[in-house]
User: What shape does this take?
Amino acid sequence: MPRQSNTHTALPEHPDMSHEEHTRQLGYRRICGIDEAGRGPLAGPVMAAAVILPQGYALEGLNDSKKLTAKRREQLFEHLMNDDSVMKCIASAGVEEIDELNILRATHLAMRRAARGLPQPPDFCLIDGLAVPGFPIPSQNLVKGDARCLSIAAASILAKVSRDRYMLELDALYPQYGFARHAGYGTKAHMQAIQQYGITPHHRRSFAPVAQMELPLGF
Assistant: This one.
């Protein structure tokens, strides 16, 4: 099994498949990349995606979601979702689970759900960020993996776009909160809306900025 990768190294200009190829040389075949979106916001779920790219896969512009414009993320999302050669699953942990488990454990739960939801079970997982204790599939963590590993970069796009679309749906239900603009993050405008209208069922009541207000549900 590859060693855990916790050190920060010089980042390549673009993610590639060197980590997948190295893992494949160790005898693994179905190697998935996993990333999440939405750990920091005050509202909405945390989402995770797991992606298995075919060997030698190439898609122009595929990169860490944070380095892409919203328009380009949407284009790449549609391409990945419509490509039958790409195995993928998008999963989430809701606000109730976040409040019950804490955000780190809820994030790990969403990651496990994504990996287990793939059309074929992965042999090995490359996971963005720090190590995930007790992950049920052999795995390696990669700090800044979305900038280094192509399958993690693909997962970052699927998770990010899926969550952004979810927050757009919430914005239609609660337009006074501005979810379409800040995606649930604790911006000044968001905090002012909470002070004025209270919190919704989609706010994370265990997060300090929400809990400290001690406001009843606004809806």
